[in-house]
Each structure stands twice: as structure tokens, then as C-alpha cells.
Design brief:
The structure is a homodimer. Chain A is of the alpha/beta class. In chain A, 41% of the residues lie in helices and 14% in strands. Chain A is built from twelve helices and twelve strands. The first copy, chain A, has helices spanning 8-15, 19-26, 34-47, 53-60, 76-91, 105-116, 133-140, 170-183, 199-214, 231-237, 256-268, 302-318; strands at residues 65-70, 95-100, 122-125, 146-149, 163-168, 189-192, 224-225, 250-253, 278-280, 297-299, 326-329, 332-334. Chain A has a six-stranded parallel beta sheet with strand order 2-1-3-4-5-11, with helices on both faces. The first copy, chain A, has a four-stranded parallel beta sheet with strand order 7-6-8-9, with helices on both faces. Chain A has a two-stranded antiparallel sheet with strand order 10-12. At the A-B interface, helix 4, helix 5, strand 2, helix 6 and helix 10 of A face helix 4, helix 5, strand 2, helix 6 and helix 10 of B. Chain A binds a DNA duplex through helix 2 and helix 4.
Chain lengths: 344, 344
Amino acid sequence: MNTRRVTLNDIARGCGVSRATVSLVLRGSPLPAADTRAKVQTELKKQGYVYNRAAANLRQRRSSSVALVVNDLSNPFFAEFAAGADEALGAAGYVTLLGSTSESPERQQTVLTSLMEHDPAGIILSPAEGSDGEALQQILGTHVPVLVFNREPTRVQWTASHWDYLALANRRGAELATRHLLERGHRRIAFFGGHADSSSCRERRRGYADALAVAGLAIEPGPMIETAPTRLDAAAHSAALFAHAPAPTAAVCYNDAVALGLMLGLATRGLRAGRDFAVTGFDDIPEAAVSTPPLTTLATDPRARGRQAATRILERVRHPGTDAVRGSVPVRLIIRASSEVTIA
Amino acid sequence: MNTRRVTLNDIARGCGVSRATVSLVLRGSPLPAADTRAKVQTELKKQGYVYNRAAANLRQRRSSSVALVVNDLSNPFFAEFAAGADEALGAAGYVTLLGSTSESPERQQTVLTSLMEHDPAGIILSPAEGSDGEALQQILGTHVPVLVFNREPTRVQWTASHWDYLALANRRGAELATRHLLERGHRRIAFFGGHADSSSCRERRRGYADALAVAGLAIEPGPMIETAPTRLDAAAHSAALFAHAPAPTAAVCYNDAVALGLMLGLATRGLRAGRDFAVTGFDDIPEAAVSTPPLTTLATDPRARGRQAATRILERVRHPGTDAVRGSVPVRLIIRASSEVTIA
DNA sequence: CTGAAAGCGCTTACAG
DNA sequence: CTGAAAGCGCTTACAG
């Protein structure tokens, strides 16, 4: 358990060559003669040598890690995102330094400070709600490429900054969902759930309003009901949809969790989504396909987003000169039974 | 974007002291005089110094990271586990090196090899299904403490090995669920779902058989139906429960996903869980509390398990001499409506 | 109380 | 084709 670790020196001594030669063999250089190479290889096996990448990185002034900081790993959406990012980083020979912040901007500062000391080649950050751009800037400095995912911190000078931003097409997505309901004949459509002060909720509400506006002046935005973005809170607030007559016949929900909660709330009133009331979600979480009824929603494929974020950050690591980009991600409307009900 | 990184040397030169003094200030030593200390602190701020922990670790022959390798980050159970582990590691000043294997033993070998080169102080491993203990041993060597979570790799010499093992109380949990159904008067109880060749499924089946045996010789194990541990596959196989008369009146399911799938399958036959048929799960995933009906299940609190795993591995890092332990984790039966139906 | 020197495990010109 | 030497950014006895 406690023997000293095997180093290049041990190998060199073990087979009577210099450290430099062993290093060349390790790195697959064609310089060493074939038999030297073989001799060294055998010795490496024999002594159970493990490469010390930290030492190599120090000498070469490179880094083989990327920090991945997420606001909430217990949310399947971000877990998938993390899995996708880790997958792509691993495939490129990078190791993922994980940090989770539990939506606390303070913890996020601590976590990032600690990760910075490990000299990541880049940083993928899905910020905690309420993150402050200046505070982040302070810690992250200007040496390391940063990609911000999903949410905008406050007070970011995007033009002056070198941060990439990868956003979901929130506005466009909500617009698609709303248009879909309009096409089914609905005229009283609510926007249901989410925190109105989050950037994603504001954008989705805007897309909802866009679609209604395009559909003609006669149609006004319906009620906008705020809830925590969770199933339970959505279920608790669903009565609010029916507070005033005439009640809406459909709701564009902030996300899938909220939509599933609303379907629960509808059931309590004896209404069934897809038969008596139309519901759409956002995210296409795994449950969406198997709920009763299955949920019409917008798919953004978080795992693919994770891969995309990793690919992008590695590009910037390799080409430090290039400009930062603000990217938006495709959304796809997936039509399922929850929005089947049509209005003549 | 591309200025050289600030080092101790820059700080030392910047305020006219030696590198050693700066290092002492950084590490909070009481040796330097108060005014020297102040001078150095100011210079650190001014130049935006970032500590290079890798260099320090190299010199001190320590490590400030722990590798966390999980089989499936998109499963909420393991995502929670990872979040808990990362939380505890972070609090102890360690950084988490993440690796995910997507249940592929081959990928697991690659991932672990790469992580080993980053010199982790310890390894928390939730093995991919079908992991081979000898192959793992090969890569992990004997220098680094390892904690295996949740599943046993094949061919592990636990007595000879220095690996910790943290298991769920699979047997005990399934026994609790089965006993609960027996107490409600059920006499024909099936075990439903899971792969019979996974260690956790075998253990849960054993606990199920235990409870039936205790209940008296008259009660024999009912059908054992194999499925993938997913909602969809479980739904697809639920008809098998009713293939032979007399059909069971209750099922102990391998896990919550399977139980939710079975409830879907029951609905297809016009049966409702909790009214016409009793169902129990395992894991207490978030959906269990809000499904229709809510699911009776066994809670193991994966986030707390993650914290526990981290705490344990750090203990072994600090006390390398101590023996490995095989720990089992408490389970708690949570009774909800899905098992409400009683048999007179 | 502060500085010069050696060394962690590696890589990389540069001689030979 | 191979080896001796310098150096990445730090820490730590050891002098002074």
C-alpha cells in the first residue's frame, strides 16, 4: 500500500538507458531504436509504471483538464448535459473536473476558485441562478476560455468579454408550442409556471406572446401563472388557471416538470390532459414520453448540448485567438397526446 | 488572453522578497513579519496571482483530487450519488475528477487509466455492469484507496483486496417490501423485473424469498419475471404476470422504474395499482412520490450515500494503514398508495 | 526573520 | 540513436 511510486528514473535505471530515452518511448517517438523501445516497454510493464500527467503538464505548460460546473446535478436535464460534456472531453483526452453549486452563487465562487487552482484548460459553466457576471469575471480572469450554458449571469459585458454563450432557443420553442395549440383551434391559451425573474422564463413568455401576436389582434395573452419550476408546486397552483371565466382551454407550460404537475392538478378537477385540456411542456425529460398521457414538448437533447459545449471549449483551447460566440441551440417540437384535444 | 501566467517569482520580484517568503505567506505561516506579509498580500492581489496546486502537489507528493467514476449519470439515482460525493469532497478541499462509463466495462478501463494518470488520492467507483475485478485491479494497482459502490464486480478477492465496498441493503429491503405485502393479506406475490444476473437483482430476489419462507411453508415464491431495469421494458413485460392462473395479486418490483412501468402495463389491462393490484418499488426516485398512485418503495437516499462514500475514502486517504470495510446502507420502507389494496 | 539551494517527475533542445 | 542538463512552479530544510 505504501511503496514509493514508480518514476521514469526507476525505469531508466531498470533497463540501463537514460530518462530521456524512456520519455521518448512513452510518447511514441520514432527516435529510439526498435530494440531499445521493446526493452523499455517490458520494463514499464514489469514495474507497473503509471504516467504522471501533472508533472508532464507542468513541464509543458499545458493542461489536460476542463472544469465543468453545474447548478444542479440532481436535475436530469443537467445530469444529461454533464454526461454529454464528460463523454466528449474524455474522448478528446481531457479529464473533467466536476463542480456542483446547488444553485448557490456563493458556493459557485468557492468552487470556481478551487477549480482555477487546478489550472483547467477551459471552463464550462451552467451558472447558479442569480450569478453575478462581475464576480465571476473576477475569479475566472481572462486567461482561460469560458463557455456559459443555459442562463445569463447578470452584469456581463458580452461584447467586451471572451465568454462563449450557449443558449436554448427558449423564445422560438415557446412560440412553436403556442402556434401548435393555435393550429388545433385553441383561442384561450395560458402560460403556466416558472419564475418570472429567470431569463429562460422571460424568453419563453416572449415566444408565447409572439405567436399570439402573429395569430391576430383578437387573441390576447391569457393568464401568466408563476410557480417554482417543479411538479409539486405546479400541481399546487393549477387551480389558478380556472379562477376567472372563461377559463383557458390550453396551457403552454414553462417546462416538463411543471406540465406534469399541471396534469396532476387537472386530474384532481376531473379533467384529463389531451381530452379536456391541452398541455405542452419544455425539455423532453424521459418521463415526458411515458406519462399518462404522453406529453407534447420541446426537445433540446441536453446530452448533445453537453457534447457541443465540450467540443466548442476545446476548439477555443486550441485556437485561443478566435472570438467568442453566442450560440443558440435547435429545439424540436414533439407532438404527443397531451395536446391532442382540438377546438372546433 | 495570452499573457504568461503569474508565478511566485513574479510576486517575489514585484515586492523585493524571495520566493520562499512568498510561499510562506501564501500558506499562512507565522514566520514572515507582519509588514512583509501585508506587502506580499497586496502584490498577490495586484498581479492577480493564481495558486498552481499541481506544482505544489508535485513537490509535496500529495494529491488534492478524488476520482468519481459512475456507470450512468443520466440515472437520477447515480446523479444524486455523484452530487453528494462531490459536495463532501469539495467541502474537504478536494476536487472531483469525473468519469462516466455508460455501463461499458471497456470504457471503464479507459476512463480509469486516464484518471490514474492524474494521480487521484482515492477512487470512488460505481462499477459498470459486468465489470471484472481482476481487470480493475490491474489498472488501479494497490497504491490508491478504492471504494466500490452499489455493485460487486466479478472475480474480486475481497479478503485479499484493500477495496472498501458500500452496498445497499438489497436483501433486507426486498424482504421489508415483501413482508409489508404479506401483512396486507397477499398470498400470491410475484417478483417483477431486473436482470437476474446482476448482483443487486439476485440479492433482492433472495430477500423476497426470505420473507415468503418466514411467512410459512404454504407460501411459495411466485413468478420471477426478468426485464431490463427500465420503465419501458417493464411495461412491455407486464402481461407475463397474468400468463398463468391464479394470477398474483401483488408484485415486489426490482426498482421504481420497473414499478412505474408495471403500473402503466396494469392500466392497459384495466387494472389500477393500489386498487386492484399491489405494487412496491426500490430507490424512491423523485417520481415515486408523485406518480398516480404514489409508489410504495424503499428509500436509500443516494445523496447521503455519496457523502458517505466521500467521507469514507478521505478517511482512508488520511489513514492508509487501516483495513478496508464492507458496509451496508440503511433502507427505509416508505408506504404509499400503490400497495394499499388488501386481501381479506 | 529571510534567502539560496535542492528537488518533486516530467520534457526538450542540444551535444556527441 | 542516446545522454547530460536545464527548467516547469512550487516547498522545505538549512544557513545566515
